[in-house]
Structure formats: C-alpha cells, structure tokens
Design goal:
This is DUF481 domain-containing protein. By secondary structure, the protein is mainly β. The protein folds into 2 domains: 3-151, Rossmann fold, CATH 3.40.50; 245-414, no CATH class. 10% of the residues lie in helices and 49% in strands. The protein has 4 helices and 20 strands. It has helices at 50-56, 114-135, 390-394, 431-442, and strands spanning 3-7, 23-24, 38-43, 61-62, 71-79, 85-93, 100-108, 143-144, 172-185, 188-202, 206-223, 226-244, 249-260, 265-278, 288-303, 313-329, 332-343, 346-363, 366-377, 404-414. The strands form 3 sheets. A 12-stranded antiparallel beta sheet has the order 9-10-11-12-13-14-15-16-17-18-19-20, with no helix packed on it. The protein has a 6-stranded mixed beta sheet with strand order 1-7-6-5-3-4, covered by helices on one side. The radius of gyration is 27 Å and the shape is globular. The termini are far apart.
Length: 450
Amino acid sequence: MPLSHKCSGILGFLWVALIAAPISAQQVEGEAPDPRPNVFFDCDGRDCNSEYYRTEITWVNWVRDRGVADVHVIMTSVTTGSGGREYQIELIGSRDYDGYEDTTLLQAFSTDTDRERLDALTHTLGISIARFANESGFRGIVTLQGSDVTDRDPGGSRLVSQEEVDDPWNLWFFRFNGSSNLDGEQTRSSLRLNSSLSASRVSPTWKLNFFGYTNLNRVEFELEDGTFTDQRTDWNFSQMITYALTEHWSIGALSQASRSTRSNMNFRAELTPAIEYSFFPYDEATRRSLTVFYNIGPAYRDYIEETVFGKLEETKWEHSLEIELSQRQPWGDAGITVRASHYLHDIDRHNVSLRGDVDFRIVRGFSVNARGDIGWVDDQIYLSAGGVTDEEALLRLRTRATDFNYGLTVGFTVLFGSIYNNIVNNRFRGAGGAAAMAAYRMGGGGGGGR
C-alpha cells in the first residue's frame, strides 16, 4: 500500500527552519554504512539550483538518469497572493521502492532573499529525502535528530487560516517596478523606460489581480540616406476577478484598457465575463492540469490610422475558447494548448492557435524534447490602410498582415558514462563567460577588433 504523507507549512525563511529537526549526515556508530540512495532531481525554474542542493546534501548519490534512481524528486511552484511562491516537493519511489510517495509544501515570502529561499528549500528537501532514506532501509547514512518530522510540518508550525492571522493589509499585496535601459554605438542608440504597478488579493474563494504598465521606447539609426528615429509610448491596464464555485468550476471577469502603437491602436477597451472548468482538482495543478476556459464580451477600438476596412473606431463582440493540458510525471513533462476565437459579427474573422511542448524519456539515457506552435490568423481588422514601411518591418515596429505563424524546436539528449552527479567544482566559474565574449568579439559582434 503506497505511503502518502503530506506536510504543509509556512517557513517564512527567517531561519525558522532551524526549529525543525536538523539533518545529521553522520554515520551511525557501530554500524556499517548502507549504500546511498540514488536521487534524481527534476525541476524547471528559477530556484532549481541543483549545484547548491548537491553541495549541501552530500549523503546521497545524485544521478543524471531517472532510470537508475531509487527516488524521483519533482519540485514545482506556484505564485502566492502576496507575491511569494509555494513550492511542492514530491518524492516518488522507483525500482525496489516503487509505491513510496511523499509530498511537502513550503511557502516563501516575496521579501525573502535568494539565499534565504535556497536555504529553506535545501532544508526541506533534505528532510524529505531523509524521511525516504529512513523508511526505505538506508538507515546507515543519515539520522534525524529532534522531534519527529513526520508529525509536524518542516517549519515546526502548522498552517494557519486567514481568521487566525492579524493582517492589517487584509491579504492585499502591491508591487511597483521601474527600469531604464540605454545602449548604443556610433551609428545606433536605443532608450527604453518601463514601469509597472500591480495589486492582488488571493484567498481560497476569491482571486483579484490588477496590473498596469507603461513603456517608452526610442530608437535612432544613422543610415546612408539620413537618420531614422522612432519613439512610441504604450500602456496597458488589466484586471481579473475570479470566484471559486466548486472544486472544479470557476467564474470571473476580465477587463483591459490599453494603447498599442504596434497594433495601430490609440485606445482599446474590453470587458469579458469568463468561466473555467478543471477536470482535476485545482490543488493538483502543479502536477497535472486539464482546463477549459471560455470568455465573451465587447471590445472598443480607437485606431491611430484608418484601417484596411476604412474604420477609425469600432466596437465588436468576440469570444474565445481555450483548452489546456499539462503533465509533470516521472517520465517527463508535456503540455498542449488549443485556443480559438472569432468575432460574433463575422465567423470568418477568426484566430486558431495550437502550441505544445514535450520532454520525454524514451529509454534510459535517451530523451527527446520538442516545442512548437502554429496559428491561423484571419482577425487582423486593426491593420493600417497605409501599410508598413521597410524600416518598421525590419525593426518589427508595426504588425504586418499574415495568414499564419509558426515556430518549432526539436532536440534530443543522450547520456552515458558515470551515472553519479555528486561532485561540485566551482573553479574557473567565469571562464565560460570570458570564452563566450571572446568568440563574440572575434565574430564581429562587439566591434572591438583592431
């Protein structure tokens, strides 16, 4: 019978993780050490710093191939309402330990530093692997000191509800970002100014997101027949309100107001009620998800230039349907999304797109990966009747008419040799970047050759 153990907690990354049972990677006296468990770490994202985890957790064999692992570790994460992240660390037994399952949840604050987050993840990951080692017979290589972590969450405290927390912000979270970028050379210069503001509130029943940004972009090129200069300012404000009806149904509303010079829109506003059905419970979304999303509503457009249909402004109703499937399993990852939309006044004005990705292990040491998308486009009612200049086309400053778009990436990975991945060597860490820069300059990219 599979063992299933779930721990939920808020660590906060203020070293409250030290309250939990520390891990001692020492050998038990008087006993011969058992073989180390082979661990395959499966993660995709900003916190998948495998070198850090391998450096800190040295009492296991980190392997490169799922097929030789005793336990498969899958780490996924989702954004929380306060701008932090909730991590889910799942351990799935393999080979002789097939049937073992363990899930641990960890929450990080948006104010945590990278080091605080990595330390807490390392601590939680270590406890999870130690629990597997002790319950699977690898007792000679690790002992758990302190309280029994199987009866407590990794932070030593239980998960509390909103009613038990004195939150003066009532779960509201705000973020403001600003950036500037200036670069150029003798015949070219570019200036970008960006700012954004977001507000969100997430509870088990309601999800509210408000987001706005403004961008200023200016480019200048010295050409043989003169100087080409382009400056444009775009902005966007959008909101999403979602209400959880049941474990599988959600309803909500989306709205947006924006300006996009690339799409010939001086002003655009839309309001669309929406509904979504999830075939799996939403709390399983980090591992598997199959959803159907539908929205419908009017959109008003005020154009910068007269369109190919002779319009300077118009209001059109439109609707869209999106089906999304994603899987993260021991054999690999896969996802596919199908989206279709059209204007209600003319069904021939439509847009259909298909995108997908897969990373699949065929046999031990050999895996294939592919990512692609394709779209059929017949809804560009906003195109300018004046067309696009050569400069605008080359710099992609204006949208051009098209019937389709596509993209495809296919690759494979072959692994052979030593299966172990325990050793970390941090010497000459900057040499790779230096070599890349040298190659870049030799190719003429840096313009620095004599």
